[in-house]
Amino acid sequence: MGRIKTKLIKRVTHKLFKEHADEFKTTFDENKKVVVTLADTKSKKLRNIIAGYVTRLKKKESI
Question: Where residue 41 sits, what CATH number does that domain have?
Answer without folding.
Answer: 1.10.60.20
